[in-house]
């Protein structure tokens, strides 16, 4: 309770200070605010943060700049989220970035903030954006200059968490006449350390597991973008991006207890490699002097992940049921995607804008899972878990938008996206399915500029969320022989309906009210299914044991499976109150926001959709009922303080808080994080020292209880405290215009790898 009172005091204290400052300005006959450029404002369907007019956009990188942007937060330093949304999709100059998420974050961390003109936050994107579910869009607009020359950035960073993690990167940009281009390269190594506490059971039975996971990673990635201006109307571009990640000797070590008695120990050793290559060819033709243009793209994406694991379970008691067991597993995944799109943007002399386009995606995934289990001292194929899954998907999309200013105060945008999906899944020699569906996804935005101080807007959007390709691959990841995660090839796409009402006052204070509905909802995480399997008892050599009458002796084993599946529907309403303002001649810059939410989940899972019947065995799954109603709260408090008049020393003090929050699998515990940073600018050099989550309080702990008394609790402590020091050197002409950013035709597919 004290924490929430502190948050409220800080937030509303800022409002009081704002009013006091306003009153003090009344004394002055000439108010400088009247001619000062607006840093933060509402513009059509987006919130615009003009960072070129902000003092904090000096000597940092784009990722840190985004963390200071209203409505955007990052609690782990690896992801960006828009408050109240699932994830943030990054666009640059209205073109979706052509790289995977980890490479994207590294690129943002190596891009100087001085290159950024403004950041646009689109909480409910229009039909022209390739997004899913309730994702929001962050559009980064680069500064423009036609100067010839080159520039670049060199960056080295060392992070200390549980292990030491170094990384480095470089980027290079050039422009000469009709040619322009940019390239980047990143390399690094890190080891994730996680400590697990798992418990499940009911009033009569209790199973507990304790252990840790060490996951070492080495990676490198990069790419280039070349653009050629054929003439003033025609441009041609080509881009390539790649990433390679190697994770060998990853160890998961779990010790298991049943009803307080030490039972067994499971050790899983894993080697994995991931390769990602993407290519895009772009052509753009300007059709008039008003800004109309025709754009086309042809893209290819190749994604490959190979994972090989060896799982051993050692008995720690003298009973005959818990015997030594082992299995080998190979889980390769190959994704090939071919895509193309054509967009035509038409601007009229009366100020209206038409956007129409068509896109096509063909994706083929190949997942040939092999699993061997130990039997009679030899490894033999497990036919139940060995499968070859081939998934093919074709998506045709047609979209149309119309935008115009209706009066001096009222503007609007209306559009729709029609998507036709044809997909087939085939588990070779076992089963298969075919899914064909069509979706009409409307969009509407109305904006009312009441006066110079007040702005009101309403937005409606419909979207779908297709399963990620790795979620469809019917493979398992084992904690113990009877406790594992299970992917689901039969999971359905979910339909989302998003509404939002936004109010802004004096381009500094805002309120955002949103309401989201989801049909055929799939769990945001995993559904824990408990149950029993009754099968003939076997001896150490795998032979069935009979009683003296010749009847098979049956034994019952409990299991816990974490399943990805649809369960029903959910509803969510959220209110975000925020403030972005600078004080005392930009010495102190604040970005505060509070998010209040109410969410309901309803439905259930009554069977395991991935189970394959085994002759002679009987499986009983306990129904998993989802009936959740939950109020939640989160707050972000960011402060940047300029410590010197030369603008070369800056102190950052940030705080994040999230109350208990419900999800389909249980209740997530309270999380919070205190972050501090100190920045020093020395000419073209920038040195930054940071401490993230000083008190190690942003880890996940989930508790779930069913009406029948069965429970499942998970604590994943990932050692979130992180200390880092980074050095960045910018060289060359920093006012150089970057090469034209190009939209890739397969953008929507990349987020699903």
From TrEMBL:
GO cellular component assignments: cell outer membrane
Gene Ontology biological process: siderophore transmembrane transport
GO molecular function: siderophore uptake transmembrane transporter activity
This protein's UniProt keywords: Cell outer membrane, Membrane, Signal, Transmembrane, Transmembrane beta strand, Transport
Gene3D superfamilies xrefs: TonB-dependent receptor, beta-barrel domain
InterPro entries: Beta-barrel_TonB_sf, OMP_b-brl_3, TonB-dep_rcpt-like
The UniProt record lists the keyword Membrane: yes
Membrane topology: Multi-pass membrane protein
Outer membrane protein beta-barrel domain residues: 286-729
Subcellular location as annotated: Cell outer membrane
Designated name of the protein: Outer membrane beta-barrel protein
């Amino acid at each position: 309770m004290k924490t929430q009172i502190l948050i409220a005091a800080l937030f509303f204290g800022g409002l009081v200070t704002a009013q006091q400052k306003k009153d003090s300005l009344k004394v002055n006959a000439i108010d400088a605010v009247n001619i000062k450029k607006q840093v933060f404002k509402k513009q059509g369907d987006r919130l615009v943060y003009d960072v070129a007019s902000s003092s904090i956009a000096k000597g940092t990188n784009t990722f840190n700049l985004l963390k200071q942007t209203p409505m955007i937060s990052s609690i782990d330093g690896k992801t960006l989220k828009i408050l109240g949304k699932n994830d943030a999709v990054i666009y640059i100059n209205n073109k979706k970035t052509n790289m995977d998420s980890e490479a994207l974050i590294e690129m943002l961390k190596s891009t100087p903030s001085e290159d950024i003109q403004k950041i646009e936050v689109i909480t409910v994107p229009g039909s022209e954006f390739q997004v899913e579910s309730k994702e929001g869009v962050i559009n980064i607009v680069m500064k423009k200059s036609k100067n010839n020359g080159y520039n670049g950035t060199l960056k080295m960073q060392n992070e200390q968490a549980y292990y030491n993690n170094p990384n480095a990167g470089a980027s290079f940009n050039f422009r000469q006449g009709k040619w322009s281009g940019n390239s980047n390269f990143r390399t690094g190594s890190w080891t994730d350390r996680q400590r697990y506490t798992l418990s499940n059971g009911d009033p009569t039975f209790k199973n507990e597991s304790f252990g840790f996971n060490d996951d070492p990673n080495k990676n490198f990635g990069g790419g280039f973008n070349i653009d050629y201006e054929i003439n003033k109307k025609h441009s041609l571009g080509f881009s390539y991006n790649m990433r390679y990640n190697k994770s060998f000797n990853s160890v998961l070590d779990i010790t298991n207890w049943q009803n307080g008695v030490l039972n067994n120990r499971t050790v899983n050793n894993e080697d994995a490699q991931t390769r990602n290559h993407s290519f895009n060819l772009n052509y753009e033709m300007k059709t008039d002097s008003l800004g109309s243009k025709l754009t086309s793209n042809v893209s290819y994406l190749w994604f490959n992940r190979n994972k090989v694991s060896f799982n051993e379970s050692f008995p720690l008691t003298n009973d005959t049921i818990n015997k030594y067991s082992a299995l080998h597993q190979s889980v390769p995944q190959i994704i090939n995607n071919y895509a193309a799109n054509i967009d035509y943007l038409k601007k009229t002399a009366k100020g209206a804008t038409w956007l129409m386009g068509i896109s096509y995606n063909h994706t083929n995934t190949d997942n040939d899972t092999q699993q061997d289990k130990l039997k009679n001292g030899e490894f033999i194929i497990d036919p139940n878990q060995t499968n070859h899954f081939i998934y093919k998907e074709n998506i045709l999309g047609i979209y149309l938008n119309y935008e115009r200013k209706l009066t001096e105060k009222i503007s609007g945008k209306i559009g729709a996206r029609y998507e036709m999906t044809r997909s087939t899944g085939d588990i070779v020699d076992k089963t298969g399915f075919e899914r064909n569906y069509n979706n009409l996804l409307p969009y509407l935005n109305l904006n009312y500029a009441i006066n110079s101080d007040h702005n009101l807007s309403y937005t409606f959007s419909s979207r779908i969320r297709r399963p990620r390709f790795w979620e469809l691959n019917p493979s398992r990841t084992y904690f113990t022989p009877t406790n594992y995660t299970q992917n689901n090839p039969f999971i359905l796409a979910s339909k989302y309906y998003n509404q939002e009402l936004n109010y802004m006052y004096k381009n500094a204070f805002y309120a955002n009210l949103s309401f989201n509905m989801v049909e055929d909802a799939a769990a945001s995480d995993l559904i824990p299914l408990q149950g029993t399997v009754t099968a003939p008892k076997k001896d150490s050599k795998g032979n069935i044991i009979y009683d003296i009458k010749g009847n098979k002796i049956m034994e019952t084993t409990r299991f816990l499976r974490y399943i990805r599946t649809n369960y029903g529907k959910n509803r969510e309403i959220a209110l975000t109150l925020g403030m972005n303002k600078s004080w005392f001649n930009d010495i102190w810059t604040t970005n505060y926001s509070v998010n209040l939410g109410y969410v309901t989940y309803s439905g259930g899972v009554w069977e395991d959709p991935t189970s394959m019947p085994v002759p002679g065995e009987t499986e009983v799954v306990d129904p998993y009922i989802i009936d959740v109603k939950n109020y939640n709260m989160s707050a972000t408090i960011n402060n940047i303080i300029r410590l010197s008049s030369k603008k070369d020393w800056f102190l950052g003090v940030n705080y994040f808080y999230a109350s208990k929050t419900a999800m389909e699998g249980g209740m997530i515990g309270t999380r919070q994080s205190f972050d501090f940073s100190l920045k020093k600018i020395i000419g073209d050099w920038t040195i930054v020292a940071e401490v993230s989550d000083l008190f190690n309080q942003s880890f996940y702990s989930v508790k779930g209880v069913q009406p029948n008394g069965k429970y499942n609790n998970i604590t994943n402590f990932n050692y979130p405290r992180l200390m880092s020091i980074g050095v960045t050197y910018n060289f060359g002409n920093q006012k150089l215009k970057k090469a034209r950013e190009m939209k890739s035709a397969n953008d929507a597919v990349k987020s699903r790898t």
